[in-house]
Design goal:
The complex is a heterodimer of chains A (761) and B (472). By secondary structure, chain A is of the alpha/beta class. The chains are: A alpha/beta (761), B alpha+beta (472). At the A-B interface, loops of A face helix 7, helix 12 and helix 13 of B. Chain A: Keywords: Acetylation, Fatty acid metabolism, Lipid metabolism, Lyase, Membrane, Methylation, Mitochondrion, Mitochondrion inner membrane, Multifunctional enzyme, NAD, Oxidoreductase, Phosphoprotein, Transferase, Transit peptide.
């Protein structure tokens, strides 16, 4: 490698010497080249190939160091009259540039400091855009955020048509905006509607879609095995092709401008009309407000930046972009979202080490919603899976669910029908224990009843090999109670999946004091393979997630009894930032499950889990209002109309259990905080009791498993940003009206007393 | 053993025999002289194993689809080939025990095209016939099926062949339309029929063309060939040169009457056809003008360096040696060891020959140097070049094939020297018999002993067979 670099340097020198005639100067340049660690380049046939490679990370990010070297290299290239065009390429197989370095912004104290950083980036990209020689970006792997903004500043873009190649502007998901020219260039490049869609959703765009949108000019096919001895083979074709195009552009043989079709011309004309644009801004604004409830500032700022750029020109646009980015970086929402991003990364690692044996064959007991869901995400990742049920009807339903889950992916074109069939072939649906003798892990997802679970543990342990792990999927039953029937409790662990399993990202793993470390490592490894974000918590009734949700639902039932209608309750909770309203959530979880959990946890924790009357839920179950699955719950389902109708039968039940609302704690905001404070207090208590190992996993579990408002970053970050003292004050106020359900736990009181105590630094 | 009696070469050869143990080709005053030296094995005959021979092989002229054969049906072509074989061999029709035919794109009316063609050609109705399909190696499969039947002692004389007719392919109604039409058959009342008819929408009338893409990957073969060529660093120039070579050699072979397997065929309503019509030697300049056909704009596979859509049929007569001799035939060659291979249909779709060649050589106990005549199916020039490069690569052999060393690439002077699929044409299921017959003819003409046939096929499959010349 060193020799190769020397060679490059030398040829660079000769090229320089030839032009400038100053041998000495080229010497000083060569030493600078040697010192560079992130960016290198070579000149061949008048094309400068610039390679980006952050030696400290698996992906390339635009940090201070990278940026400085890039500026240096680009200036050298411009100073070299032998260079007629340039190619920008990453040396990493799966990453072009994955975005800007977030730490760089987080280290900033003020909005101005952030804005200043961005202006440097904007300037660099503007220079590239106006470069006297054409730049060709050869994209393979992730090209996101600042990486995409870099690429679209280049004159030409080539992308490999591989599953790894994704383009996008995910800034909005971090509460930020594309701040290095993205809001200015994208609308011009892909049109206003598509640009808004990209920037406001942050969605990833695959290579072929990017080509259709006009985001890249050319695609290159990934190649199979050939003669090259390199793992980076897949993006090898990108380089020669990019070099060819660079030469073509320099020689004016390749034209960047494509002939516009009639539709494009019409669209351009329409977009040229100020009233039309105004209407678009307004529509988009309204849509954002409706979806974000005004809780997320970034989307609105994105609209503002785009609008400023188009209506008032580039200079104003860039200024608006950098200033707004600076402001957003200082918001609690952005901090919360970035916290979640880092938390998610942390929860996608196995902190328990490499398991002794890899799980190559998995068995799932029970082909219900959960069991089939678990089977689906397992075979999807290439692990052979047995799906066992006790009845043929149950099994058929489960197999159909798996098939449908995969088939829906083929409709969205993320799978081919062939891939679907291959994946399905890994599933073995059966009614007996055939093959269990070779299973490495069994996950049971049978009915939530301790005696049935005990029976299953005994049956399964009689047929599985000694190394096989037994995982139980339960939402509330303490694992140690289930383990009581086991002959090998060290191999028993809880794996709490969330429904629908193929959509919900969270997996809560529960260990007992007898669970071995290797068993935990293995369960985490399986969960990670299934694509889950994982929290590992201690054992107890309701573990962490169910335990936090139960008091909030109890409070929701009380509010309903007090005469707050399901629709009002939903709008209050979604208005606070929950993606799904409390009444709808109860219907989704299942009223029967909610009743079951409320009763179990009520017994375990006593009056703290009181509030609403459990009988309300039981009565609803009795009448068949089990939630969405039975067609009726708080709402009526089934009709195709979008407007959900409140179930009048449920309303009658609520009337018969009517409570009078104490006026002092029944304003809209009070109801919101009654719900949230009980959730948060229970979460803090879980940390206090050691059920939760740390606040990060608490936040991730609440947001990814229960839909705690992402803009608040999770219960712990919420306490930090809202102020523990303020929250305690509110709870004391509620305590006066309702009693010990609102008694703040000790840890929360400690934080309230000492404002320097924070869950997150 | 010398192929020439000119004594001036004797000394030369004597020295050579002592230093090198392989075939050498010398060019003296425009005369090619082949000198054979000791082979790894004198013959591939095995004690206790029946010798199976190729008595003869014929084919109809291979024509570009949509030309003179345009109004025929597949079994017409197959029948022409069968009748041609009967004429050529003088075979009594009832001496045939079994008939196997290959085909790829099936005409639904004649799904067992072997039977329809055999009956039409006047074979005894007591001779059973079945049809096999294995993409471009369908007639290889037909021939090896015949070999199997004879080796197992079930038959003594089998006719094998293949037919492909691309001038007409089954174009279907859409699935929705088919469903409606099938329900219409079952509808009992007028009302039910009318309501079914009423459910037909304009979109249902859109026809469904036969897929040209690989089913498992949805990738067309040309696209895969282009990627394969790129993966092995095969340039456009190399591909065009190889295609030009194929056409030039085919033209030369045609002009000098070497393509003796071609029979004349009086096409109903048209003239007698007696020549392949796709052989068109062009110039490098003209070929360079073409735009890539699959990966645009930077691909390297073009119409000129790919095989073209072709109509044609072929047939061979395969017998046990005793039976052939008993009937007074002088067989052309022994059909020896053969293999089928399969690999990744996405990235190694067309690498069949690379995988099959070392395997069949190993099975025979031969080395590449023992082979005097190579006939490889040329699907695309890029595919052939990629295979040659893969066979020449130790790294590829070790990394992907689990072999210690490369098998080596065939020397070009022994390779497809009478043209190939690129120039003669490629009626999918008829090509295999052409390859085997050509090897037999080339061995006779050039005086070699061993020949090798290899081909790739859709589905990521491949085939190779070793053929031994019948002692003259």
């Amino acid at each position: 490698m060193a020799s190769a670099r020397l060679l490059v340097t030398r040829s660079g020198c000769t090229a320089l010497k030839a032009i400038t005639g100053h041998g000495q100067r080229s010497l000083s340049v060569s030493s600078a080249v040697l010192a560079r660690t992130h960016v290198s380049y070579e000149v061949k046939d008048n094309v400068a190939v610039v390679r980006i490679n952050d030696p400290t990370s698996k992906v390339n990010t635009l940090g201070r160091h990278m940026q400085a070297e890039l500026v240096e290299v680009i200036n050298e290239i411009w100073g070299n009259s032998a260079v007629k065009s340039a190619v920008l390429i990453s040396s990493k197989p799966g990453s072009f540039i994955a975005g800007a370095d977030l730490n760089m912004f987080q280290a900033c104290k003020t909005a101005e400091e952030v804005s200043y950083l961005l202006q440097a980036g904007q300037k660099m990209f503007e220079q590239i855009e106006k470069s006297p020689i054409p730049f060709v970006a050869a994209i393979n792997g992730s090209c996101l955020g600042g990486g995409l903004e870099f690429a679209i500043a280049c004159q030409y873009r080539i992308a490999t048509k591989s599953k790894k190649t994704i383009l996008g502007t995910p800034e909005v998901m971090l509460g930020l905006l594309p701040g290095a020219g993205g809001t200015q260039r994208l609308p011009k490049m892909v049109g206003l509607p598509a640009a808004f869609d990209m920037m406001l959703t942050g969605r990833n765009i695959k290579a072929d879609k990017a080509k259709k949108m006009g985001l890249v000019h050319q695609l290159v096919e990934p190649l199979g095995p050939g003669l090259k001895i390199s793992k980076k083979r897949t993006f090898l074709p990108a380089r020669p092709l990019a070099v060819d195009f660079a030469k073509g552009l320099a020689g004016k043989k390749v034209r960047v401008e494509k002939k516009k079709g009639l539709m494009q011309k019409v669209q351009d004309f329409v977009m040229g009309l100020p009233p039309v644009r105004k209407q678009i801004y307004k529509t988009v604004h309204n849509k954002v407000m409706k979806q974000s409830k005004g809780l997320y500032p970034a989307p609105l700022k994105i609209i503002e930046c785009v609008q400023t750029g188009i209506e008032k020109g580039n200079a104003a646009g860039y200024l608006s972009e950098s200033e707004n980015f600076g402001k957003l970086a200082m918001t609690s929402v952005s901090r919360a979202l970035i916290g979640l991003f880092y938390g998610q990364v942390a929860c996608k690692k196995n902190h328990f080490g490499q398991p002794e044996r890899e799980v190559k064959k998995l068995a799932v007991l029970g082909a219900g919603l959960m069991g089939a869901g678990i089977a689906q995400v397992t075979i999807d990742k290439g692990v052979a899976t047995i799906l066992k049920d006790t009845t043929e009807e149950g099994l058929a339903r489960g197999q159909q669910q798996v098939y449908k889950g995969l088939n829906d992916k083929t409709k969205k074109k993320s799978l081919t029908t062939f891939e679907r069939d291959r994946i399905m072939s890994l599933l073995s649906g059966q009614l007996d224990y055939r093959g269990f003798e070779n299973a490495d892990m069994v996950i049971e997802a049978v009915f939530e009843d301790l005696s049935i679970k005990h029976k299953v543990v005994k049956e399964v342990e009689a047929v599985i090999p000694p190394h096989c792990i037994f995982a139980t999927n339960t939402s509330a039953l303490p694992i140690k109670d289930i383990a009581a029937a086991s002959k090998r409790p060290e191999k028993l662990i809880g794996m709490h999946y969330f429904s629908p399993v193929d959509k919900m990202q969270l997996l809560e793993i529960i260990t007992t004091n007898k669970t071995s470390k290797d068993t935990t490592a293995s369960a985490v490894a399986v969960g990670l393979k299934q694509g889950k974000v994982i929290i590992v918590v201690g054992d107890g009734p309701g573990f962490y997630t169910t335990r936090c949700l139960a008091p909030m639902l109890a409070e929701a039932v009380r509010a309903l009894q007090e005469g707050v209608g399901p629709k009002k309750l939903d709008s209050l909770t979604t208005g606070f930032g929950f993606p799904v309203g409390a009444a709808t959530l109860a219907d989704e979880v299942g009223i029967d499950v909610a009743a079951h959990v409320a009763e179990d946890l009520g017994k375990a924790f006593g009056t703290r889990f009181g509030g609403g009357n459990v009988e309300v839920l039981k009565m609803m179950v009795q009448k068949g209002f089990k939630g969405r699955k039975s067609g009726k719950g708080c709402y009526v389902y089934g009709a195709k109309s979008k407007e959900k109708k409140v179930n009048s039968g449920a309303e009658d039940i609520l009337k018969s259990f009517k409570l009078t609302a104490p006026p002092a704690v029944s304003a809209d905001e009070d109801i919101q905080y009654r719900l949230v404070s009980r959730f948060v207090n229970e979460a803090v208590l879980c940390l206090q009791e050691g059920i939760l190992p740390d606040p990060v996993q608490g936040d991730i579990g609440a947001v990814f498993g229960l839909g705690f408002p992402p803009c608040l970053g999770g219960p712990f970050r919420f306490v930090d940003s809202y102020g523990a003292d303020k929250l305690v004050q509110k709870m004391k106020h509620f305590e006066e009206a309702y009693g010990n359900q609102f008694t703040p736990c000790q840890l929360l009181l400690d934080h309230a007393k000492d404002s320097s105590k924070r869950f997150h630094k | 053993m010398l192929t020439t009696n000119q004594s001036s070469y004797d000394l030369f050869c004597f020295i050579l025999q002592r230093s090198k143990k392989e075939k050498c080709t010398f060019h003296f005053h425009n005369t090619t002289v082949n000198i054979f030296v000791a082979k790894s094995k004198k013959t591939l005959a095995k004690p206790g194993v029946k010798n199976i021979v190729l008595v003869d092989g014929v084919r109809t002229p291979f024509l570009q689809s949509g030309t003179i054969y345009a109004d025929l049906m597949p079994h017409d072509l197959a029948r022409a080939a069968l009748q041609g074989l009967l004429n050529r061999t003088g075979l009594p029709k009832d001496a045939v025990d079994y008939i196997v035919y290959g085909t790829v794109i099936q005409e639904v009316k004649t799904s067992n095209v072997a039977r329809e063609a055999a009956l039409g050609a006047g074979f005894s109705d007591k001779t059973p016939a079945h049809t096999v399909t294995m993409a471009c190696i369908s007639s290889n499969q037909a021939m090896t099926t015949a070999v199997g039947l004879i080796a197992a002692g079930q038959c003594d004389a089998v006719v094998a062949g293949g037919v492909e007719f691309m001038s007409d392919v089954p174009i279907r109604h859409s699935r929705r339309m088919r469903k409606t039409m099938l329900s219409l058959n079952k509808a009992k009342t007028l009302g039910a029929r009318l309501s079914l008819l009423g459910s037909i929408r304009l979109a249902h009338l859109a026809p469904e063309l036969p897929a040209v893409a690989e089913f498992s990957t949805a990738e067309t073969m040309g696209h895969s060939a282009d990627r394969l060529a790129a993966a092995f660093g095969v340039s456009r120039l190399e591909q065009d040169e190889f295609a030009l070579r194929s056409h030039t050699l085919a033209k030369k072979a045609q002009d000098s009457g070497l393509l003796s397997d071609v029979i004349s065929f009086k096409v109903p309503g048209k003239d007698i056809v007696s020549k392949d019509n796709g052989i068109r030697p062009s110039t490098m300049e003209q070929m360079a003008k073409l735009k890539p056909a699959f990966i645009k704009p930077h691909g390297t596979v073009t119409a000129a360096n790919s095989s073209f859509l072709t109509d044609g049929a072929s047939a061979v007569l395969i017998m046990s040696e005793e039976k052939a001799l008993a009937m007074g035939y002088k067989p052309k060659a022994y059909l020896r060891d053969f293999v089928y291979v399969s690999q990744d249909p996405k990235d190694q779709l067309l690498l069949g020959p690379t995988y099959a060649t070392p395997k069949v050589l190993e099975k025979s106990g031969l080395t590449l140097n023992d082979i005097d005549v190579f006939e490889f199916h040329e699907a695309f020039a890029g595919q052939i070049m990629a295979n040659l490069k893969a066979m020449e690569s130790d790294w590829f052999a070790q990394t992907y094939m689990g072999r210690k060393t490369k098998v080596g690439a065939p020397p070009m002077e022994k390779f497809n020297s009478w043209g190939g699929s690129l120039s003669l044409g490629h009626p999918f299921a008829a090509t295999g018999c052409r390859l085997v017959t050509t090897v037999a003819h080339r061995l006779q003409k050039e005086g070699g002993q061993y020949g090798l046939v290899a081909a790739c096929a859709a589905g990521g499959q491949g085939h190779a067979m070793v053929i031994e010349a019948y002692p003259q």
